[in-house]
């Protein structure tokens, strides 16, 4: 029963995330294949979800399996409609038979385990062909360099620098992805605003990453993933869709989002504006507080903020879960910390700045 409930939550989260990504397609730039890349990402997500349903077919009642299949069908039709609306006729449109047809993942003829790779291979082949068409066409526009000329910002960040605060422009990037860094203070400038089609921070230790400026002045992330981060401060900025936080420990996160999911996190303070209930699972020592005023943007204050209406999926007993709490007024960082300390100060190392914000937690 617990396994069925876990898969149900996983399925609903995945559907919600993919719906959010589809809703954002219209706002994603078509230049240099960015929109096509976003479409490909949704296609891959639908394909994975279909495989997930298939993998649980033996233990899933036929009624539930049909509900999952119908949900995927509706999602595929929504993608078809959205792509048809945002894609010029001179390009392409998805054929209904490609992703819009009803697929019963419980039926043997549609089970990828019985026909290895057939579904994903066909979708990936179709997706790759269309991506190449989009890239070849968009490269003629000239606003951004081709993929071969893209800068490796992670490699640049890994190089020694006399600057205490690093400000990579991400001006030629299509997405913001920072990975495998340590002991760095990174602040993304407004030039990174065109790269917020998607975002991810992975494998960071003793870092400060501030993405608030490009997501406030440009476009918010449609979704954001934070994974395997320790002893760090992440000012994630604004996210129109879900934020998935996995394997984060001894850190502070600041974010505005529609949905927040935390998995396997420990000793994390999260300053939050969230329009739905934050969800934690397999977490301990999580402390919540409201978003600092300096990170709020115009019109945001009127939106409902459910930052303290936390659901703990691993605490099914009555009463307050011991895995999370709210920060008291004495524990909440003063506004001056966010406006004067976090942006960096001359001669102050990243370790000293982290200590001033309370990392590691005493």
From TrEMBL:
Segments crossing the lipid bilayer: none
Bias type Basic and acidic residues, positions: 128-140
Compartments it resides in: Cytoplasm
GO terms assigned for molecular function: tubulin binding
Major location category of this protein: cytoplasm
Record GO biological process: post-chaperonin tubulin folding pathway; tubulin complex assembly
A Pfam entry, by short name: TBCC
SMART domains according to UniProt: CARP (SM00673)
Domain C-CAP/cofactor C-like intervals: 189-315
InterPro entries, per database record: C-CAP_CF_C-like (IPR017901), CAP/MinC_C (IPR016098), CARP_motif (IPR006599), TBCC (IPR027684), TBCC_N (IPR031925), TBCC_N_sf (IPR038397), Tubulin-bd_cofactor_C_dom (IPR012945)
GO cellular component terms attached to this protein's record: cytoplasm
Family the UniProt entry places it in: Belongs to the TBCC family.
Record protein name field: Tubulin binding cofactor C
Species in which this protein is naturally found: Metarhizium rileyi (strain RCEF 4871) (Nomuraea rileyi)
Lineage: Eukaryota, Fungi, Dikarya, Ascomycota, Pezizomycotina
